[in-house]
Structure prediction request, 397 residues.
Amino acid sequence: MSARVEAIPPSGIRKFFDVAATMPDIISLGVGEPDFVTPEHIREEAKASLDRGKTGYTSNRGLAELRVLIASDLSSRFEASYHSDDEIIVTTGVSEAFDLAIRATVDIGDEVIIPEPSYVCYAPCVSLAGGVPVHVATHDTDGFAITASAIEAAITPRTKVIVLGYPDNPTGGAISRADLEAIVRLAVEHDLLLVSDEIYARLVYDGWTHTCVASLPGAWERTILLNGFSKAYAMTGWRLGYACAPHHLVEAMMKVHQYGMLSAPTMAQYAGIEALRNGEPDVRAMLAEYSRRRTLIVDGLNRIGLRCARPQGAFYVFPDITGTGLTSDEFANRLLQEEHVAAIPGSVFGPSGEGHVRMCYATSTAHLAEALDRMARFLGRVDGFTPHPLPSLPHRP
Ligand code: PLP
Prediction:
């Protein structure tokens, strides 16, 4: 085994899935994916593409028609402008897009700033590329929002990239336009790249407006923008995403992509075309349902004594479990063993996640209600549990 691989811990999330899979009455709030099946018209278009014989590779960059639709979606929705012919690569999910962005830009020993708690893949991808992940803590009391001043304190002469992921997995927190502008100013001042994972950009609530960092003055030329179809269109299994950047960065990523992946799955790319053409009502319907579920779980958690903020985006809540006196690992393990409810310990997402667990509410309201009942029963058994007296904290800003 290579030293780099050996140094990387296995995913803390997988461990819970393996145990959960052995429990028939499990309620899983663990896995971060929609419970919806991909909308029927999207599945039908994929089948039709097979019937038309579209079973070969596509261009390394992805189908031209899909790239045109991606460019027009980004421009009309987020004011981010990319040429479809040479500033977009279609990838095998945002997972591949992130890996490309890092491997194409990071040299051995380069430091990559990663706010935490954050998505579990960021730091291992950086380490595998020979880079050094530098974590910047965010705090519950600020709604886990990352600020330019916290990032600035972590910048050294070796810093090359700042990773942004918003709305955030695991906290659901978004970043305001003003905070993004300050981060961009910092990136310009220190000549840093921004790798921005905006996979949850469509999943925002209560009228929140998602600002795409690439739309801000000074940002476009130093940003690699990542997005995909997994979350908004309930297409996790199709493995479809994209990376957008200035031409020279796209060319760098293309080198990695063409040798490693060749092209994203063809059938999925046809499905992506249909999603962007006709999937808007589906996105809105799923979003409305997530919004109802968010209310149910946030109110329910606060009612049973776990203080929980109302996140602006994604489909996760990140309640405070410190009133139980348990670590997040103990809490998640006991909840799983005693009540067959799967949640992910907050520490998996970085040290600042300790004292919290991540629960994904992309599951039915019946499941959420049952999970809340089981959690209330569980909390009743935790010695010395102090229900958090505070009302839910709003996310900043
Ligand atoms: N980025 C974030 C923040 C995620 O939460 C996830 C999946 O959970 C991914 C990327 C992976 O996305 P994809 O399915 O497009 O590879």
Remarks:
- The first strand starts at residue 27 and ends at 28.
- Residues 32, 93-95, 119, 165, 169, 197, 199, 228, 230, 236, 241 surround pyridoxal-5'-phosphate (CB under 6 Å).
- The chain has two domains: 3-38+281-379, 40-279.
